[in-house]
């Protein structure tokens, strides 16, 4: 019986814990104790570094998004300009046909049936309407003051009863395409008679 008592003193029971042994503390208590400890300077520095890297990545993402938006808008604008340029060239090539219709309708030959010119006028109006839907508009010239941005002076004529630089005749119609000048109107412009004292002997009546 003495031996059994000695054995019990040497070997702790399986249900208990040895006094003074910290390894036997439950895991949740260890975690709580670690959380209660103050953060070390190294951990705080690491957290600041991670936050700075996160902000840098976010800023970089915003810049990439802005660059992509700018690229998309630029590509769309270039596509629209290319399409508009192609349409402009096609419409420009049709202007001489409109001029031909206008001359034919203004100078009708004798002996030609009226039905012929009626058909020609119908085609001419259809072309104007079709090109008008594409943005083509004629420039008003006769009776307007000469504007070098819209008109091209082919000739000047002395006209005392007209305003200085008033357009008295249109030789070729001008056109705009969506507010952009496609072709200036070729016109005759009125000028006042020059005084003999101001004349240099040159009879050319150019624009002053």
Structure description:
The longest helix has 66 residues, at 41-106. The chain is of the alpha+beta class and 208 residues long. The strands form 2 sheets. It has a 3-stranded antiparallel β-sheet with strand order 1-4-5. The chain has a 3-stranded mixed β-sheet with strand order 2-6-3, with no helix packed on it. The chain folds into 2 domains: 47-134, Alpha-Beta Complex (Hemagglutinin Ectodomain, Chain B); 137-198, Nucleotide Exchange Factor Grpe, Chain A, domain 2 (Roll). The protein contains 4 helices and 6 strands, in the order H-H-H-H-E-E-E-E-E-E. It is elongated. The protein is 50% helix and 15% strand.
What key attributes describe this structure?
single chain; 208 residues; alpha+beta; Hemagglutinin Ectodomain, Chain B; Nucleotide Exchange Factor Grpe, Chain A, domain 2; three-stranded antiparallel β-sheet; three-stranded mixed β-sheet; disordered C terminus
